[in-house]
UniProtKB/TrEMBL annotation:
InterPro entries: ZMYND10, Znf_MYND. Coiled coil: none annotated. It holds the Pfam family zf-MYND. Keywords: Metal-binding, Zinc, Zinc-finger. GO terms for molecular function: zinc ion binding. Residues 271-307 form the MYND-type domain. The keyword Electron transport does not apply. GO terms for cellular component: cytoplasm. This is MYND-type domain-containing protein. SUPFAM superfamilies: HIT/MYND zinc finger-like (SSF144232).
Length: 332
């Protein structure tokens, strides 16, 4: 990936981290519904709920992407590191997720409180004995924080003022033996955090002195977002492309129907009853072929239900008069 794409990816991951800190817990909240309530949900409500679930899952994946970006910080362009540390201050956005992870929730089942964690794209109940066991998302988060604090390049670039120092020191109560036994590499993180206790925080003037700041501006998203009213575009698409009454949609359906009919002319149709050569088909559904009326009547009871369904679809798309009758001499 080039520098511009990596910069866009970093911005995207940051937006998802912000979403997890603000809206993630609300979207992850368990919604207790009865069977009747589920049946009474409108299509819009169902779509909105599925959209929220999808966005939450994507945001969880963004933590893994961010972890891999920090793993290869030395191989990435300097603009990516500057974007993470100076522009977005991603470390300060990640630490609140340690305190309140939205991928963990509590709810009741049959009056009994249970704990669930989001892993492998679904919510799974966690037994009391596994309550402190790290999930993949927990591990990715901790490794990302580890890279941003312990990595030598990040330490040289990142400066700690009073706010940043006090925020990072909150990690001390989580860096216990139970955690470091599961991720031994976090012992170095624990040592680095302890060093901040005796370190004197720098002032804003000291941190900014002697630094040349050149910020690369991402262009892809700006070009997509600038000069376009996406709400107006969406409303227009809803009326034109997704409207059942759209004349353009009906014309397209009719053209597709003609293509299928043309394909039927390429080979001899057979009677649905006797399997002999057929010369005409059902005038309602346009799907079954017969050699004559006797065969059509003989299988009508079996064909009736399917015919009612298919006939409704044909009439809806405006192709009710597109019948084809074949002359048997055509195939001779």
């Amino acid at each position: 990936m080039d520098a511009d794409s990596l910069l866009e990816l970093t911005d995207y991951c940051y937006r998802k981290i912000v979403y997890l800190n603000t809206q993630g817990a609300e979207d992850a909240k368990y919604k207790e519904r009865s069977g009747r309530a589920i049946q009474d949900m409108t299509p819009q409500e169902d779509l909105q709920e599925k959209t929220s679930g999808t966005e939450f899952g994507i945001a969880i994946c963004s933590i893994s992407v961010l972890r891999y970006l920090t793993d290869f910080m030395g191989d990435l362009p300097l603009s990516v590191m500057a974007r993470m540390l100076d522009c977005h201050d991603i470390l300060m956005a990640l630490i609140p997720l340690v305190e309140n992870p939205p991928w963990q929730r509590k709810r009741t089942r049959s009056g009994k409180p249970i704990t669930e964690k989001y892993a492998e794209g679904k919510w799974t109940e966690v037994q009391a004995s596994d309550r402190f066991k790290l999930t993949k998302t927990d591990a990715q988060l901790w490794l990302c924080i580890y890279n941003l604090i312990v990595d030598k390049r990040c330490r040289l670039k990142y400066t700690y003022d009073d706010f940043r120092r006090s925020t990072v020191l909150k990690l001390r109560k989580y860096l216990n033996d139970l955690l470091t036994d599961q991720l031994p590499v976090l012992k170095d993180l624990k040592w680095a955090v302890e060093q901040l206790v005796i370190q004197v925080p720098q002032t804003t003037a000291e941190s900014a002195s002697g630094r040349l700041i050149i910020e690369q501006v991402p262009e892809l998203r700006e070009k997509l977002m600038t000069g376009k009213n996406w709400r107006v575009i969406a409303e227009k698409q809803l009326k034109s492309a997704f409207s059942e009454a759209s004349s353009a949609t009906l014309r397209q359906a009719q053209e597709m129907l003609k293509l299928f009919q043309f394909g039927e002319l390429m080979e001899q149709p057979t009677c649905a009853a006797c399997k002999k050569a057929a010369v005409q088909r059902c005038s309602r559904c346009k799907s079954e072929w017969y050699c004559g009326r006797e065969c059509q009547v003989s299988v009508w009871k079996a064909h009736k239900n399917a015919c009612d369904i298919l006939a409704g679809k044909v009439e809806k798309c405006g192709a009710g008069n597109a019948d084809i009758k074949l002359d048997s001499s055509y195939y001779s």
